[in-house]
Amino acid sequence: AGIAADPTNVYLWSACGLFESRFGDPEAALRMFEQATILDKTHCQTWQAYGVMLEKRGDFEEAAVKFSTAIQVNPLSVPTYQAYGLMEARRGRPDAARLLFEKGLRIDARHAPILHAWARMEEEEGNYAKAR
User: Are the beta carbons of 118 and 101 closer than 8 angstroms?
Assistant: First the structure.
């Protein structure tokens, strides 16, 4: 209903994409994120959500492109570094994940979610000293 009322509202397209990604049709979510990025190429949160959705689909290379775009749009987005780092960790690329976590922490050294994500990755890698 909201999109029909205001089809140029990037926030509505992005919110509907998030809803579909969590409770509905993943392909519909991707189409909504695509439309949101067409409407506003500078909306970092949409690029990040788009990347997360592509990762869930297993399209890691395209997800990396979306995460990189989000960082270009807003290089201070710690949650984007976290999401991108988590994807790299799940891909079995801990060194790439560490670099992303480090970049995020240079922006906000007290960002608890990225600290937790990094610690969990190190724990899963068996690096208990680093996890602390």
Answer: yes
